[in-house]
UniProtKB/TrEMBL annotation:
This is ATP synthase subunit a. Belongs to the ATPase A chain family. PROSITE patterns: ATPASE_A. GO terms for cellular component: plasma membrane; proton-transporting ATP synthase complex. It is a multi-pass membrane protein.
């Protein structure tokens, strides 16, 4: 694999959808996000049908996830946790599945693999890449998080007290407090984007070096563990920012 092939794999392809004469560009990252969202919606519907007072089977799984999210949110936000739990639960599940979706590439595809195996159809199979390796996706999620921080601070402190907090403990802190609202989303963006992109790049190099045995072993860390860890860190840091804003 030369550097050009690797760069091509790291980039998202674009598609044009013609709607009433208008060409709407759709990138691979958007398509993968639609897949993840559709999966979460379908699973949510399945797991929340016919709920009973005494949980069994799939209801146990659903309640375990909800309880984990509630406790996780409550631990950071205290008695203000309830309005925020649905958002953080959704964000955690979306990031978790979006980050680990490249586990489905454990059967590598592409021209090199097709030539190596003699199976020409592998060249035409699409490669599923995590949408969070797209800087735009990571940035959009970070902006959503910082907007939530702003909303929480204004709602629970009140506009006047929230503005006053920029001058605490000393008025000289004003420029630094303002800078936080730009530095924090930038930090969230680069941390998520950088880690997922690095893991994806390493896995591509592993696929090239040994396409059958090594990917399955290393994918446990780079796809599953690292993807889950980055989802947790992103949500945890956002929780800390919200907790700081409302206290």
């Amino acid at each position: 694999m030369n550097s050009e092939e690797l760069m091509h794999k790291m980039q998202f392809r674009g598609y044009d959808i013609n709607v009433f004469g208008f060409h709407i560009p759709i990138s691979d990252s958007i398509i993968v996000m639609w897949i993840v969202m559709a999966f979460l919606i379908i699973v949510s519907i399945i797991f929340t049908r016919k709920l009973r007072m005494v949980p069994t089977g799939k209801q146990n799984v659903a309640e375990t996830i909800v309880e984990f999210v509630n406790n996780f949110t409550k631990g950071s936000l205290g008695h203000h946790w309830r309005p925020f739990a649905p958002y953080f639960g959704t964000l955690l599940l979306f990031l978790l599945f979006a980050n680990i979706i490249s586990i489905f590439n454990i059967i590598p595809t592409g021209k090199g693999i097709a030539e190596f195996t003699g199976l020409s159809f592998l060249e035409h199979l699409p490669e599923i890449a995590p949408p969070t390796k797209d800087l735009n996706v990571a940035g959009a999620l970070a902006v959503m998080s910082i907007v939530l921080v702003l909303f929480a601070g204004i709602k629970y402190k009140g506009p006047k007290a929230w503005l006053k907090s920029f001058l605490e403990p000393l008025p000289i802190m004003l420029p630094f407090k303002i800078m936080e609202y730009f530095v924090r989303p930038l930090s969230l963006t680069l941390r998520l984007f950088g880690n997922i992109l690095a893991a994806f790049t390493i896995m591509e190099l592993i696929y090239f070096a040994e396409p059958f045995l090594l990917p399955g072993v290393f994918s446990i860390y780079f796809d599953l563990f690292d993807g889950g860890l980055q989802a947790y860190i992103f949500v945890f840091l956002t929780l800390l920012y919200v907790g700081e804003a409302i206290e």
